[in-house]
Amino acid sequence: MSIRSTSKFKTACSTSLIMAALATLTACDGSSGGDDDTTPEPTTSQFSLAVSDAPVDNASEVVVYFDEVELTGNGEPVTINVQDEDGNPKMIDLLQLQGEAFEPIVDDTEIAAGEYSQLRLVVTEDSYIVMDDGTYPLRVPSNELKLDGFTALPGFEAAYTVEFDLRKSLVDPQGQEAVFLKPRGVRLVENDTVGTLSGTVSEALVLAPECAAKADPYAGNAVYVYEGNGLDATMLGDDADASENDDEIRPFTIAPVTFDETSQEYEFVVGFVPAGDYTVSFSCLASFDEPETDEDEEDGFMLMTADETTVTALETTTLTIE
């Protein structure tokens, strides 16, 4: 190579280095630096699912055996086996998961990003409920609980919880030797969008003269949570199914009020509540509220208060009812 040729090469190399600094490319090695280092867009999401519960009176165990979780509506159905290493279904006593407590059934599983129109929980006929008068099979129509779907964003975690409101979802038909668990009162919530509502109820309300219709003052105490503020308190209803001519406002969820021996207070905790405004009512006669029929004062059921509050995502809101 001549001296002139070498000078031309050095000049070209210097120019290339300047261009490389500006364009974050590498040159001067005889190559064009055409490699594409762009990180590809993610196409999957990490899916997690847990179970929680708002309990019911007259039951000491509500044991559900989960077999599969199925996601539909985004291409081919995604089936996630939730059995243990021995091939046994996942057994969960829902009554052990009250308030903020939860039990994971799917942990950090990769799924395709996109819109899923439905989530299905497949349960087995081994499920059962232990009530005051005995143990009964717990049946689910078609052995599936079909819930709303969700959006799995690419590159993000899709973490959800199935919240069982057993006061709404458990049905005990007359004349049948089984209790049914229905999707009514079972909801799917996104963990990052929900908060917790907790508080106390004054003893004066729990022991009010209106509560004398029940034998046990500790039983049948509950808070009824309704969506929204500024509601007409006279239109707040029980947890019956709404009919075409029904103008009553039905509760979003119901949670028991229990006496804490340590604090000597009547307390409640409502977990996994979507952020927003709510009206909370207390009833000491919740044991007279049947899930599929409409009860009022003539039937022994009544609401005693109406307090407004706001739930913030990932925070605990405290409310005193007196």
Query: Count of helices?
Result: 3
Number of β-strand runs: 21
What is the molecular shape? globular
Domain count, please report it. 2
Mean pLDDT: 87
Oligomer: single chain
Q: Compute the gyration radius: what is it?
A: 28 Å
Report how far apart the termini are: 97 Å
Task: Please give the largest β-sheet.
Answer: 9 strands, mixed
Poorly predicted segments: 1-34
Structure, briefly:
This protein is mainly β and 322 residues long.
Question: What does it look like?
Answer:
There is one protein chain. The chain has helices spanning 3-23, 166-169, 203-206, and strands at 44-54, 59-72, 78-81, 90-93, 103-112, 114-123, 128-131, 134-139, 144-152, 157-165, 170-171, 179-181, 186-190, 194-201, 222-227, 253-256, 258-260, 265-274, 276-283, 307-311, 316-321. With 322 residues, the chain is mainly β. It has 2 domains: 44-184; 196-321, Carboxypeptidase-like, regulatory domain (Immunoglobulin-like, Sandwich), CATH 2.60.40.1120. Strand 7 and strand 8 (134-139) form a beta hairpin. It is globular, with a radius of gyration of 28 Å. Mean pLDDT is 87; it is low at 1-34.
